[in-house]
Automatic annotation (TrEMBL):
Transmembrane segments: none annotated. Belongs to the V-ATPase E subunit family. Produces ATP from ADP in the presence of a proton gradient across the membrane. GO terms for biological process: proton motive force-driven plasma membrane ATP synthesis. This is V-type proton ATPase subunit E. Pfam families: vATP-synt_E (PF01991). InterPro entries: ATPase_E_C, ATPase_V1_Esu. Residues 12-62 form a coiled coil. It comes from the Bacteria.
Length: 196
């Protein structure tokens, strides 16, 4: 019986040793797996942080770029408004010239056109008060065979200058049209004077 007890004892000791070995091996395996998972989680955390930092940097750059563009556009818009005001005021200055200067402007402008044929002279209300039949007669004498000007009863809706009209075709010498035709040519120079 002692042999059976010894055998049983040995089997139990072996089983206990085996159990301890299996538990130690399982603990070691658990620690390896846990260690790998922690390392992978840290790696993933690092990637996520790097990606978030890169996205934050990109977003910050986009916001700054957008704000800079908005400021530049607002500044450009304000400059264009100032330039527009300068050209609008130049029309007002032209509209305020003296009556004699206005009549000289009409005469020299029409004579510089060369052969114009029959034309109706359209003026605004202020122009109608300055131009009389004597002026029209003198103008036609100066034109000779190059043209025949008649004063139109139509009152133009413009600040100053005049329009010559014949059969629906107009030669627009209003101050607005003249300033507008020079605007593209002079805009850069005006901007330089105003903003440099």
């Amino acid at each position: 019986m002692a042999n059976i007890n010894n055998l049983t004892s040995k089997i139990l000791r072996d089983a206990e040793e085996r159990k301890e070995s299996i538990l130690a091996s399982a603990e070691e395996e658990k620690n390896k797996i846990l260690s790998k998972k922690v390392a992978k989680a840290r790696e993933l955390e690092k990637e996520i942080i790097q990606k978030a930092e890169a996205e934050a940097k990109t977003k910050k750059e986009r916001i700054i770029s957008s704000a800079s563009l908005k400021v530049r556009n607002n500044k450009l818009s304000a400059k264009q408004e100032v330039i527009k005001d300068v050209f609008d005021k130049s029309v007002d200055v032209l509209a305020a010239i003296s009556g004699d200067d206005f009549l000289r402007f009409i005469k020299s402008s029409i004579l510089s056109l060369g052969k114009i044929g029959e034309q109706n002279l359209i003026l605004n209300k202020a122009g109608m008060e300055l131009v009389d039949l004597t002026f029209i007669y003198d103008l036609n004498q100066a034109l000779g065979d190059n043209g025949n000007i008649k004063l139109s009863p139509t009152i133009g809706n413009f600040k100053g200058g005049f329009i010559l009209e014949s059969n629906g075709i107009e030669i627009n010498n209003t101050y607005e049209a003249l300033v507008s035709s020079l605007k593209n040519e002079l805009e850069f120079e005006v901007a330089n004077v105003l903003f440099n």
